[in-house]
Amino acid sequence: MEDEERDRYMQSRHKKIVAAEATLIQKQANEMNALRKKIETGMNERLKQREIEHNKLLQRYQNVKRELENQQNLERNKVERSFTRPGTASVMGGSRSQANMTQSKMSYQSSSKVGKIGGANGKNYPASKPSNQ
Questions:
Q1: Which is higher by pLDDT, 4 or 120?
Q2: What is the four-CA torsion angle of 87, 91, 92, 97, rounded to 10 degrees?
Q3: CA distance 10 to 62
Q4: CA 12, CA 50: separation in Å to the nearest integer?
Q5: How far apart (Å, rounded) are the C-alpha atoms in residues 103 and 124?
Q6: pTM exceeding the 0.85 threshold for the entire prediction
Q7: Side-chain-side CA neighbours of residue 10 (13 Å)
């Protein structure tokens, strides 16, 4: 009789232990799922913040690029206008610029004659070159 009682006690004890173990395993699984969900939520939030920051940087880049393009276009237009003014065009392509070119050619020719030295056989060499050529 005592053996039967002890067997029932051991079976009942074993059932309680198995039930407690199952409860503990379920509790741990629930905690694990909660932590996974918390990690996933945090990761999604960081990804969202990263995307927002990326979009801000991209917008800033596009604004700076647009501003630089506008500044360059304004400067280009200013330079183009300075070359296409009616008074400037006649000076650049007219007889006045040809007169300046003729005058500069004449001054170059006269300055090049000043620096020459007489050599053998009547050859003239520039002052910067050796006379043994």
A1: 4
A2: 180
A3: 77
A4: 56
A5: 24
A6: no
A7: 6
